[in-house]
Amino acid sequence: KGDEMVEIVKHLHQYVPSVEYSEQVTISSSENVTLVKSTSHQILLGGDQLTAARVRSAQRSRLNSETISEKLSGFIAVVEDWHTKANFLGLIWRYFYSVKSASDHGTLY
Description:
Elements: H1 2-13, E1 18-28, E2 31-40, E3 43-47, H2 49-61, H3 68-71, E4 75-79, H4 82-96
Parallel strand pairs: 3-4
Antiparallel strand pairs: 1-2
Helix pairs in contact: 1-2
C-alpha cells in the first residue's frame, strides 16, 4: 500500500502551487554554480485517519529527496472525521427537534 500511496500523492502533488527558479552563485573566483530553488504552498489533504497516516508515511519515505515536489511536502495531511460530525448532527437533531415544541424557544421546529 505504501508504494501505491506514493504514486497517488505524486499525482495529486501536480496541483500544489509551486515555483522553481535558478540562481547563479559564485563559490570561488573561478567557479560559478547554478542553484535550482523551489518554493511551494502547502495545502490540506483530508481523509480518514488511515488515509492521513498513509500520506504522512508516503512523505516520510521521500524525505531525503532533493526538491519539494519529490519530497511531497506540499500537503498537510488532516483527518476529516465526517462520520463523527454526522453523528453529532443527528444527536442535535433528535434532542432539539420535536413537533410538540413549536412554541418553545431554542428548538428546531
